[in-house]
């Protein structure tokens, strides 16, 4: 968990302790089936201290005085979302009656502008609403296993000197604003997020600055929307050339969407060492098709998976994995295994963002960002629990920086945290009250609901619950 959230959490503990409540431990053991890059450790144990995994053990360590929580759950590394627009995830699903040739077509469509863009910018333009939007969007991501995400905030041009409100220190790690990886100051991150390469989305000065930062080694990843349109669309087809002309096609670039790229263009992406971020759910809603991940895979392009945004994509990473599985089975002859899909949401994006020495896998020395899930059945493939499991009944706990932030109340209570009850798809869950960046989630939701009604719409549900 970002360091300042951890401090807020500690202050909450002090308050709880003064009221006679147990102080949650910073050193603990948690048992379950560990899903690691090197294989599955049945009945294994994680030894966690001060937010970091000290050891992975095959049998329970005997450490006097240390809390040991044994479960029958599967333990996975947290998901890393490299493509999202969280500020719009407070809006309900938007379902256009037809598809589009490219993103410029729907962005310029008067219906979208009336129903989404005008309302979205009005809401996000109110600075007093930012922290409520941030908390709601982060909780929405959290319930699907995301422990790191991108895109919160409207500053896609990346203007130097601009800083986000302090609440973005967060609940989920914000990769482009604050993660806690690089100290306590905001905007020290080594990941940048951009809406596109055309002049309407990125000016020449910004492009030159990104290219310079990559050359100098101060920018590890530029995640940028490229070729978000059909292969026959003229505007989309030129974007790869523009990206390359500006010196931005290389190992430090992740191409978001890439729907319009041909096999030969994907070959160029592979040779440049760049990667793509696949968001099939939103692609099919908006364009009736998705990126040619079959060709990308054959060309050796690294592929991450992410939900885009909940108005036309999935509510969270878990559900985007399930959607991608359906596409893989129906359209791609089972191209991706369940393990590959889960890794495309965890270890792969960690490697793409060059944070794989910190998060993305369960390993000694990594930060304790992980989640616990009920297995489908004894002896079942652990990855099936995500691809086939129900998110509300399956997800038992999410930890960030060794702090339990969401999950089953009875499990969170083992760690002594103060809980705020939450109902997800009819299931009783809870949030760690001390970790919430804008205060009570019920109060945040009430304020947002009032704002959304004033805009002539409604607050999105946290999850569509299979609808």
Automatic annotation (TrEMBL):
Domain Amidohydrolase-related spans what residues? 226-404
Q: A Pfam family in this protein?
A: Amidohydro_1
Annotated transmembrane regions: none
Positions the record marks as coiled coil are none
> Which GO molecular function, any one, fits this protein according to its record?
hydrolase activity, acting on carbon-nitrogen (but not peptide) bonds
Asked if the keyword Kinase belongs to this entry, the reply reads: no
Sorted keywords for this record are: Hydrolase
Name recorded for this polypeptide: Amidohydrolase-related domain-containing protein
The species is mine drainage metagenome
**According to the entry, what is the taxonomic lineage of the organism?**
unclassified sequences, metagenomes, ecological metagenomes
